[in-house]
């Protein structure tokens, strides 16, 4: 999770929502990414989507069985869907997302037995640190907008 937090900090430095992710296979990081939605102006440029894509390219397959995804914020519906479809085995996340979390908060797409794949889910890993990155980012953003008179 510490490596995912490093990725989240990179996103924050770029003015992106500070969310980071790493994908691990056999104890080694095979892909890392952070949010690039604003930078690339692509709605799908979430950390999880980017790390899954990088891992698929690295491994030469869309099947990411036996991999573990570490992400600083609970995955949204889009990312949870990509996790299921790419067959990631385990998802470890930091902070819960009360507005869009689909790994247990609003629903749990990752363990829904109606899909042909389920992922093990572990939440609240370094949750305070992950949550603080987000709250500090949004606090600074609000202060910036207020100082600009918006």
TrEMBL record:
<keyword id="KW-0378">Hydrolase</keyword>
<dbReference type="InterPro" id="IPR028883">
    <property type="entry name" value="tRNA_aden_deaminase"/>
</dbReference>
<dbReference type="InterPro" id="IPR002125">
    <property type="entry name" value="CMP_dCMP_dom"/>
</dbReference>
<comment type="subunit">
    <text>Homodimer.</text>
</comment>
<feature type="binding site">
    <location>
        <position position="79"/>
    </location>
    <ligand>
        <name>Zn(2+)</name>
    </ligand>
</feature>
<dbReference type="InterPro" id="IPR058535">
    <property type="entry name" value="MafB19-deam"/>
</dbReference>
<feature type="binding site">
    <location>
        <position position="76"/>
    </location>
    <ligand>
        <name>Zn(2+)</name>
    </ligand>
</feature>
<dbReference type="GO" id="GO:0002100">
    <property type="term" value="P:tRNA wobble adenosine to inosine editing"/>
</dbReference>
<feature type="binding site">
    <location>
        <position position="46"/>
    </location>
    <ligand>
        <name>Zn(2+)</name>
    </ligand>
</feature>
<keyword id="KW-0819">tRNA processing</keyword>
<comment type="similarity">
    <text>Belongs to the cytidine and deoxycytidylate deaminase family. ADAT2 subfamily.</text>
</comment>
<feature type="domain" description="CMP/dCMP-type deaminase">
    <location>
        <begin position="1"/>
        <end position="113"/>
    </location>
</feature>
<dbReference type="Pfam" id="PF14437">
    <property type="entry name" value="MafB19-deam"/>
</dbReference>
<keyword id="KW-0479">Metal-binding</keyword>
<dbReference type="InterPro" id="IPR016192">
    <property type="entry name" value="APOBEC/CMP_deaminase_Zn-bd"/>
</dbReference>
<dbReference type="GO" id="GO:0008270">
    <property type="term" value="F:zinc ion binding"/>
</dbReference>
<keyword id="KW-0862">Zinc</keyword>
<protein>
    <recommendedName>
        <fullName>tRNA-specific adenosine deaminase</fullName>
        <ecNumber>3.5.4.33</ecNumber>
    </recommendedName>
</protein>
<comment type="function">
    <text>Catalyzes the deamination of adenosine to inosine at the wobble position 34 of tRNA(Arg2).</text>
</comment>
<feature type="active site" description="Proton donor">
    <location>
        <position position="48"/>
    </location>
</feature>
<dbReference type="InterPro" id="IPR016193">
    <property type="entry name" value="Cytidine_deaminase-like"/>
</dbReference>
<dbReference type="GO" id="GO:0052717">
    <property type="term" value="F:tRNA-specific adenosine-34 deaminase activity"/>
</dbReference>
